[in-house]
Amino acid sequence: MLERLFKLSEHGTSVRTELIAGVTTFLTMSYIIFVNPDILSTTGMDRNAIFVATCLAAALGSMVMGLVANWPIGMAPGMGLNAFFAFTVVAALGFTWQQALGAVFISGSIFVLLTVTGVRSWLIAGIPHSLRSAIAAGIGLFLAIIALKSAGIVVANKATLVGLGDLKQTGPLLAIFGFFVIAVLDALKVRGSILIGILAVTILSWIFGVSQFHGIVSAPPSIMPTFLQLDIVGALHGGLVHIILVFVLVEVFDATGTLIGIAKRANLIQDGKPNRLSRALLADSAAIVAGSLMGTSSTTAFVESASGVQAGGRTGLTAITIAALFIAALFFSPLAASVPAYATAPALLYVAGLMMRELTEIEWDDLTEAAPAAITALAMPFTYSIANGLAFGFITYVAVKVLTGRWSMLHPATQIVAALFVVRFAFFAD
Fold this sequence. Notes:
Blueprint: H1 2-6, H2 15-29, H3 32-40, H4 47-69, E1 75-77, H5 81-92, H6 97-117, H7 119-126, H8 129-151, E2 154-157, E3 161-164, H9 170-187, H10 193-207, H11 232-237, H12 241-265, E4 269-270, E5 273-274, H13 277-294, E6 299-301, H14 305-310, H15 316-329, H16 333-337, H17 341-355, H18 367-382, H19 386-403, H20 412-427
Antiparallel strand pairs: 1-6, 2-3, 4-5
Helix pairs in contact: 2-15, 3-4, 4-13, 4-15, 6-12, 6-13, 8-17, 8-18, 8-19, 9-10, 9-17, 10-17, 12-13, 18-19, 19-20
């Protein structure tokens, strides 16, 4: 049955290889079941319900990816947009988490429509490569400042806005230790380095008595505090129009880039294009909608899936294995509740560092490309908003190209997005 469903022989793989690949990918991306509840619970959402929603969204997304697209890719709530959801949309702009979930649902629905109609491919083709790289790097910087603040390494300072925290305190010391654990283990090619780092800091926090141990295994908690709690009407009438645009843009860039990149590594290429890409994109966009209904931020394809591909994963059986492991993780809710913020902060910081690699893809020799890219990346952490970074970047890109006489180089998609952000500043000022 597995052979007929996943075409294992055709892809040159076996059940054993696919299972090992699934476990490998799960170990590298399972940190999200600790990090996502820690981030989203700052909005007032129930932490235990978020934990369940995270596991279920990841399981459902991975299962759909495996059955519909037959691709070895794990899905889960994405880093970056979860921080934007919590710290910008809710904390900074003052919207309720229910409205924010409504915005995620609407963006996911738009995402499905763009995928079905083919507009998504047109949009991706029209966005400059330098801006795409800058967006990824900027989100990394945004995650970095959140991580450093959560760990107490960076604190508010009246004279300089930010300053160095008290590194003699237990929290910052444990966070620094956790970062070194993750970096060293990853450099040594140890699978699950981020997860190991989180658990190491958590155990030390129990030993030192700075966090409370709630247990390891229990029956899954209720998802009802977040299930179907989204406010779609409030999202449409609450000035969240530009936020929905940001969700759509980041989802388009992040998911599409990851899917294509993993497809190339897994040799899922036919006639120069990824095989069954449209199915993979549809699975990705559907997972966003499902995740918002359960009570979590945007679900996306995880780049950590590359570790499973490297271990030999080539089919959807890898993704099904990932889904099964996320279901099993539901029984570890007490452990997730025992993880302190300074245990997840090193994971955030390390992921942020990995995202910074995108800066090397920017055309620094062409200032009409480099200047907008730099503005995009820098504006995200310094204004504490992915939305502002996108807005400044697109508007600057179009303005610089026009003022230097390179209007013909602008794709209509870039012009439209820039115009939408101009309207945002004119009529939807924060």
